[in-house]
Amino acid sequence: MHDDAGSPGRLATFFATDDDWERKGSIGLGDWLVGAVVLVASLITLELIRGVGTLDSSDAPTWVEWIAVITGAALLVFRRRFPLTIALLAGLHMFVTGVWLPMVMGLLPMQIIYFVAFFAGAAWARSRRDMVVVMGLITLFMFAWLSWQYAVGSGIDEIRESTADAEGSALVGPVTAYVLLTTLMNLLYFIGAIVGGQVAWRGARQKAELAAQAATIAAQSGQLQRRAVIEERLRIARELHDVVAHHVAVVGVQAAAGRKLLERGRPGDIEGATEALGNVEASAREGVTQMRSLLGTLRDPAGDADSEPDGVRSPEPRLADLPALLDEVRESGLRVDYEAVGPVSDLPLPLAHSVYRIVQEALANVRRHSTADRAQVVLRVDRTAAAPYAEVEITDNGRPRHGTSGSGLGLLGVRERAAVRKAEVDIGPRAVQGFRVRVRFPLDSAVPSAGAAR
Q1: Of the candidates 21, 18, 2, which has an alpha carbon nearest to the alpha carbon of residue 10?
Q2: According to the UniProt entry, where is the signal peptide (predicted)?
Q3: Torsion angle, CA of 42/43/45/47, rounded to 10 degrees?
Q4: CA–CA separation, 207 vs 210, rounded Å?
C-alpha cells in the first residue's frame, strides 16, 4: 500500500502500480486502417514539404526518407498488441530519425505517430509497473538527448543563428526563450501522452469492473430465482402428499360405508350407498384435479401446460378466510378497503387459494417495504366478457421505505402462481403515488368446485 499523503503515493495511486488487472489488446482491421491512413498522410506531407524546397538541405536519398516514414507508420499497427515494445521502438525511431533526418522527424504526421505510440504504451501496457519504468526511461532519454544537443551539440549555435535578428524581450533573451519554449513543448508532449494513456487505461478498467459487477449481479439474481423455484416446488411436494393422503382416506371411508350398506340390504340402504359412492366419485375427481394442479406447477412453465390446474387441498386458505386476513392486517395499523365485483363466490377452490396467497403476499410487502397507511383490495369476476376472467388487484398509497428492500422471492412466487394458470401479471409502481400488484386469471379452463368459498 502507498501513502497517499505524499506525492510518490499519489502518483503510484494514479498510475495504479499495485493493480494486477491486464487490458487485453489485439491486432484488428482498425489497426491496419490506422496504419494505412497515417502512412498515406505522412508520405503526402513528405512530398509536399519536398515540393516547397524545405528538404533541399537534406543529403539523404528519397528512398531512405520513405523508409523512415513507412517504418514509423507500421509501428501503429502493433501498438495495442505490443504496447511497451512499440513505445520503445518509437523512441528509438524518433532518436535515429532526429539525428539523421531531422526534417523528416519534425513532420506533423511523424510527431502524431510518436505521440500515439507513447499514448498506447501507457494505455495498453499489461503491467503498470513496467509501464511506469519504460515510459519513464523513454522520457528521461529524450530530455537527455535534448540537453545534450544544447550543452554539447550544435543546438545552441543553430539557435543563435536562427534568432540573430530577433530583438528578444526585456525579461528573456531570444536564446533562453527558445530553449525554454522547446523544453516546455517537449514536456507537454511526453507527459500528455503518458497521462492521457493512463486516463484511457483507468476508463477501460472502470468499464471492466462495471461489466464484472453486472455479471455477478445477474448470476446472483439467477441463483435467487432458482432457489425460490426449488423452495416452492418442495412446498408443493408437501401439499401433494397431503392431497393424496386426504382424498385417499376419504375415498376409503366412503367406499367402506357403501359396501356395508349394500351387504345389509335393508330398505333405504340403497339410497345411502348411492350417496356414499357419489361422495367417493366427487372426492376422487377433486383429488385428481388437485394433483394435476400441483404437478402442473412442478413442470417447467416453458413446457407443456395445455391442461392447467384447478385443485387445492382443503386445509389451504380460501376466499372465506380473506376477511380474517384483512382484519389481521388492519390490526397492524394499515387501513385496508375490500371490494368484490361480480360472482366471486363461484370461483374454484384452487383459484380462490391463489387469490388469497397473492393478497397475503402483496399486503405483507406493503407493511414491510412501504410507507403506505392505506391499501385497497379489489376482486373482480366477469364471466360475461369475451374472455371470462377473475382479477385481483392490490394497490397502496405509499412510497418505498429505505433500507427495507427484500429478496424479491415473494413476488417471484406470485408470478409462478400466475404462470401455472396462464394469468397476466402487472407488478410495479403506479403512475401516481403507490405500488400495484394485479393478476388476471382466465376462467375458460377453470372448473368450479363444489364447496367453493361463499
Answers
A1: 2
A2: none
A3: 160
A4: 5
Q: Alpha carbon 299 to chain centroid distance?
A: 29
Name 382's bridge partners. 389
DSSP state, residue 344: G
Q: Read out DSSP for 239-280?
A: HHHHHHHHHHHHHHHHHHHHHHHHHH--TTHHHHHHHHHHHH
Q: Locate 214 and state its grid cell.
A: 453486472
CA distance 410 to 360: 10
Amino acid identity, residue 395?
Answer: T
Q: How far apart are alpha carbons 105 and 102 in whole angstroms?
A: 5
Q: Is 322 left (phi over 0), alpha (psi -120 to 50) or beta?
A: alpha
In the numeric block, the cell 369476476 is attached to: 381
Which residues lie across from 377 on neighbouring strands? 338, 394
Largest CA distance in the chain: 142
CA distance 70 to 207: 35
Give the number of residues written for the chain.
Answer: 454
Q: Which residues of 352-373 are buried (b: 16+ CB within 10 A; e: fewer)?
A: bbbbbbbbbbbbebbeebbebe
Element (H, E) at 380: strand 374-382
Q: Hey, what's the cell of 188?
A: 507537454
What region does 53 belong to: left with phi over 0, alpha with psi -120 to 50, or beta? left
Closest CA to 447 of 313, 309, 299: 309
Q: Would you state the cell numbers that stand for residue 249, as one nine-digit string?
A: 382416506
H-only helix segments in 421-451: none
In order of 272, 360, 368, 374, 395, the CA distances from 329 in angstroms are 45, 9, 12, 11, 14
The whole-number mean pLDDT for each consecutive block of 10 residues of the chain, a chain of 454 residues, reads: 60 83 89 94 91 80 93 94 95 92 89 94 92 93 83 58 57 70 88 93 90 87 81 65 54 68 71 73 69 62 44 60 85 86 88 86 81 92 91 92 62 78 89 90 60 37
